[in-house]
Amino acid sequence: MKFCSECASPVSLSIPAGDNRPRYVCTSCAAIHYQNPKMVLGSIPVWERDGELKVLLCKRAIEPRYGYWTLPAGFMENNETTAEAAIRETQEEAGANIKLGNLFTLLNVARVHQVHMFYLAELVDLDFAPGEESLEVQLFSERDIPWSELAFPTIQTTLELFFADRVKIREGGSYGFHTQDINRTMRAEGEEAK
Amino acid sequence: MKFCSECASPVSLSIPAGDNRPRYVCTSCAAIHYQNPKMVLGSIPVWERDGELKVLLCKRAIEPRYGYWTLPAGFMENNETTAEAAIRETQEEAGANIKLGNLFTLLNVARVHQVHMFYLAELVDLDFAPGEESLEVQLFSERDIPWSELAFPTIQTTLELFFADRVKIREGGSYGFHTQDINRTMRAEGEEAK
Predict the structure, then answer these.
(1) Residues of A in contact with B7 (CB under 8 A)
(2) Which of A121, A179, B26, B118 could share a disulfide with A98, CB 3.0–4.6 Å?
(3) Do A30 and A44 sit in the same domain of this protein?
(4) What is the ipTM of this complex?
């Protein structure tokens, strides 16, 4: 940020009165331009028949992480709820119709000023198709999940927690709600960017 | 938003290629200025001794809702987690030292582009004091909560859910995690703004 979005004068970093951290403050009209974390909302769309469960993943057609696999997810917009954002992103990226369940993960990625949230979801039908931001969309059983080709740590963590809860469900339990702080990057795990 | 924060040229509302909703786009450098919902993080600080539980509330010293009671809460900042934000706001507004528990409520307030979240919390000591944004800070037992003088619907909902879960705990249950969409305003309930 270089200029005030209200009056076009230059901004400078300074600590406003009564505040305790640097903000972009207009040198002319004194408007304070706060910057805050964003929410990324997505779903875990599953298709379960004859005792076999599969999860819908999207291969990214955009940077960052072009060509890597993700759960459908994206930035929450103004005027919508977290649930509405998860349904919209699943429709936009995977063309998938879902029945949304409970919120399953809330993952802090403070390094990039984001909070990622994923809802449980059931596919209503198999009429899914890649949207503009996806190269392909595919159902994966647990043993076929492309673990080494996942786009983001929050996808990996959400899928790991999901399959761990599936084990508990087979033993009579139910899905939990999980919060975690994510500090690692995918590349830090020894993998080069494509 | 009137001017581009990168180059100071005027912005106009238009739908960028590949997008499906109006954004502020720079008429000169074509930068797209997205606007996204913000997170408000807070806690439910309790002090429990000899079977009696009290909740710490703050009387607001700032607008909106000057003079009304709130749980300590405020906008989440970049470079912090949701839990860190809840602890910081509790320290800043109530001067209170807490041991943070689980996330308790996640409340969508789509009307004002906000998501409010409140964590369970135990006061570590009674050395609390009003911060710059509070007129006073006070412990309330359930019967003394100033229900008609609460600042925001998300405060009312969180406190109602909290005391409902306390009933379940007395019957052997535990605290849940609650999500809700909040559409009402405090003033719509027949109350004039102060």
Answers:
(1) 2-3
(2) A121
(3) no
(4) 0.93
